């Protein structure tokens, strides 16, 4: 029997009551192992805190609040239990984030929710929640790391009153534009999420916002914000009437930067609703196309190469027909984790549709892209799937790679990589193919 290889060695540390462990442990582990992560159970706070302190990597820490509260109605007892929660939250390492499970009754207590949010709450869920749903939600948290999430701001003016270090730490690129008459061209080139215009530039050229927004290709999700040096209701009204989405006062660089980042996060959340695959959390086809266009523009400006890979699970219809669509979904989710683990900070990954994925590697040439995709292929091939009790199967995928700048557009990159994927399938599957000047290269 092939050795079961852990993808990430991820695990969930769960602090819960003894009876919960007794009644749910076996089923929870069965569900979790299908997605290749483990669950470690704790019913003592001290043991859990020690395990969290010594944990590293991509672990999740889950706390069932019922372990802290009993069902007694004695007020003095309730106060003692509340102090116990405070004691737990104080002892948990502040560098970690936590998932809390709570009853509907607990969820109705705003002060409790406030305390959790202020104590590094990653997420919370209300019980009752079935084991398979809980595991699926935890899987989504494992796969929540977003790739290629670089956002951009274009600033019209001399010196942007923003904390550039804070922007960089949050994946936001600041692009300066000095010429108001060229602003629309700069926006078209860089496709930013936010355009910042100081009031002096607006007063000099009041048609700025109209020129931007009347372009038929203008992104309605893009925010155009005026930065005002001193509060002037009359000027603010005039600016809003001319098309600005928001007016921000330049009183403090730190505060202004945080306001801009909050707006960026709202834009990100809004775009996620239409650009991400719900099953895996990866970019969907629409999200990939938008992000890939941005990446190609950045690559052209910085003279970087890109490798564009298309991946397709081999004989996926047979997998679905033999073991069912539920098992097929597990294979897809496990593959999404494998692929995610091999991405760089600025790479992109998409579930393009069905069993097909696309990976775009930043600052990577054709040969390097082929090697990266091949590393993914080998890692996936080592994953052991238990299709029936005691029966283990391994699966594979095929792939093709194209590169920028050999191919200039996202569509051209996809068509070339897809043609190489077809070559890999026709050549026997479980391989990666690229096109070279003299021959088609597969391995």
From TrEMBL:
Pfam families: GGDEF
EC class of the enzyme, as a word: transferase
Catalytic activity: 2 GTP = 3',3'-c-di-GMP + 2 diphosphate
Top-rank taxon, per record: Bacteria
SUPFAM superfamilies: Nucleotide cyclase
GO molecular function terms attached to this record: diguanylate cyclase activity
InterPro entries attached to this UniProt entry: Diguanylate_Cyclase, GGDEF_dom, Nucleotide_cyclase, Rev_trsase/Diguanyl_cyclase
EC number: 2.7.7.65
Domain (GGDEF) ranges: 304-437
Cross-referenced SMART domains: GGDEF
PANTHER family reported for this sequence: DIGUANYLATE CYCLASE DGCM-RELATED, REGULATORY COMPONENTS OF SENSORY TRANSDUCTION SYSTEM
NCBIfam families given in the database record: GGDEF
Record protein name field: diguanylate cyclase
């Amino acid at each position: 029997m092939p050795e079961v290889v852990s993808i990430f060695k991820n695990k969930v540390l769960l602090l819960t009551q003894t009876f919960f462990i007794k009644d749910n442990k076996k089923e929870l582990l069965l569900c979790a192992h299908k997605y290749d992560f483990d669950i470690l159970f704790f019913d003592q706070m001290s043991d859990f805190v020690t395990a969290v302190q010594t944990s590293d990597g991509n672990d999740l820490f889950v706390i069932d609040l019922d372990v802290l509260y009993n069902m007694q109605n004695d007020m003095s007892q309730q106060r003692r239990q509340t102090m116990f929660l405070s004691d737990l939250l104080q002892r948990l390492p502040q560098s970690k984030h936590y998932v809390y499970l709570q009853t509907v009754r607990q969820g109705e207590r705003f002060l409790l929710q406030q305390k959790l949010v202020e104590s590094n709450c990653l997420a919370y869920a209300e019980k009752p929640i079935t084991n398979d749903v809980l595991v699926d939600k935890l899987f989504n948290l494992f796969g929540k790391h977003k790739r290629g999430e670089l956002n951009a701001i274009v600033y019209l003016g001399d010196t942007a009153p923003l904390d550039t270090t804070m922007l960089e730490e949050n994946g936001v690129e600041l692009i300066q534009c000095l010429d108001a008459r060229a602003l629309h061209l700069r926006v078209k080139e860089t496709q930013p999420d936010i355009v910042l215009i100081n009031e002096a530039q607006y007063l000099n050229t009041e048609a700025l916002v109209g020129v931007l927004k009347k372009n038929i290709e203008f992104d309605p999700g893009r925010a155009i914000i005026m930065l005002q040096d001193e509060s002037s209701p009359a000027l603010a009204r005039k600016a809003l009437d001319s098309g600005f989405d928001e007016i921000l006062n330049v009183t403090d660089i730190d505060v202004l930067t945080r306001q801009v980042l909050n707006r960026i996060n709202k834009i990100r959340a809004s775009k996620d609703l239409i650009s991400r695959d719900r099953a895996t959390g990866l970019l969907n086809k629409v999200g990939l196309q938008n992000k890939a266009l941005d990446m190609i523009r950045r690559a052209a400006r910085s003279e970087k190469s890109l490798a564009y890979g298309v991946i397709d699970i081999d004989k996926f219809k047979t997998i679905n027909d033999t073991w069912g669509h539920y098992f097929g979904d597990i294979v897809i989710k496990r593959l999404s984790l494998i692929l995610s683990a091999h991405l760089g900070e600025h790479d992109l990954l998409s579930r393009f549709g069905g069993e097909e994925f696309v990976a775009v590697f930043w600052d990577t040439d054709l040969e390097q892209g082929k090697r990266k995709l091949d590393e993914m292929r080998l890692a996936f091939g080592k994953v052991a799937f238990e299709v029936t009790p005691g029966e283990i199967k391994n699966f594979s995928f095929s792939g093709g790679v194209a590169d920028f700048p050999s191919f200039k557009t996202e569509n051209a990159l996809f068509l070339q990589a897809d043609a190489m994927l077809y070559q890999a399938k026709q050549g026997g599957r479980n391989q990666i193919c690229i096109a070279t000047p003299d021959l088609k290269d597969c391995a």
